Amino acid sequence: MPPIIEKGADWFLSIGTTNSPGTKVFALTGKVKNTGLVEVPMGTTLREIIFEIGGGILGNKKFKAVQTGGPSGGCIPGSYLDNPVDFDSLRELGSMMGSGGMVVMDEDTCMVDMARYFLAFTQSESCGKCPPCRIGTSQMLEILERIVSGKGAHGDIERLEELGRLIQEGSLCGLGQSASNPVLSTLRYFREEYEEHIYDKYCRAKACNGLGRYRIDHTECFLCGLCKQACAFGAVRELKDKFFIDEAYCTKCKACYAACPVDAVKIEKVAGEAGKV
Ligand code: SF4
Ligand code: SF4
């Protein structure tokens, strides 16, 4: 404020873009090295904010997406990192400026689970006045919870798209009108992750429990036994100086995956279980 009062409105309007003049403060957070509040001229690119100011991705992992605008914002993929950030461009990408939140996600983030997480927030925030928001968001959430737990079915993607559109069009206030943004934007940019969860029962980020097939890679395993200790279900068996996972007992809880110090426990795609509920 002091520089605006000192230098005048015209000076402030000379910063930024024609339709979005001035500066904007973003709350940069998530899987980025430097988190915090950053003030940049409107029109600064996402790449400049995340990689130059934010210092890049934590642990030098791969960038996957950035969600702008708070819980109702959309998730933008890496192909749009060079887009300028202003009101119009974010809207065109299916997101929004909103509260100025900017959550960076890396390759270990499951986009379906992320959409479920944000929708759970807006669903619980719904005041309940209008049915599209009150009932629609809980129906969408129910579908997303099925998908991330490996019980997604053929037609779920289309149901989510239709519900998302109906909620956007039929809700009375901004909360309902924007609640489905995280789901619709991830369906637009990360559709294959939804398809993998539903048809292959697989989460490529290895974030969702209950999905994939667990296997120990004997070329990487150095027989420390930590996976066996971590398994509460007796599914890790030792046989002829090798560890195996007995699928009949495995609940896919991920404890062995987290315990192995050398990533010898693999979670792999289970093909051919298309759309089983
Ligand atoms: S995923 Fe869980 S139940 Fe399955 S083998 Fe690993 S620790 Fe045991
Ligand atoms: S924790 Fe990893 S390295 Fe240790 S026995 Fe199990 S699979 Fe092998």
Keywords:
Ubiquitin-like (UB roll); de novo design (two linked rop proteins); 5-stranded mixed beta sheet; 39% helix; alpha+beta; 277 residues; binds iron/sulfur cluster
Describe the structure.
39% of the residues lie in helices and 16% in strands. It folds into three domains: 2-106, Ubiquitin-like (UB roll); 111-200, Up-down Bundle (de novo design (two linked rop proteins)); 213-268, 2-Layer Sandwich (Alpha-Beta Plaits), CATH 3.30.70.20. It has twelve helices and nine strands. Helix 6 packs antiparallel against helix 7. The model has no long low-confidence stretch (mean pLDDT 93). The protein has helices spanning 2-7, 9-13, 46-53, 87-92, 111-125, 131-148, 156-170, 174-179, 181-189, 191-200, 226-230, 255-259, and strands spanning 23-30, 36-41, 63-68, 75-77, 101-106, 213-216, 236-239, 242-245, 265-268. It starts with a helix and ends in a 9-residue tail after the last strand. With 277 residues, it is of the alpha+beta class. The structure holds iron/sulfur cluster (2 copies). Residues 214, 230-231, 233, 235-236, 245, 250-256 line the site of one iron/sulfur cluster (SF4).
Brief overview, please?
This protein is α+β, with helices and mostly antiparallel strands and 277 residues long. Helix content is 39%, strand content 16%. It is built from twelve helices and nine strands.
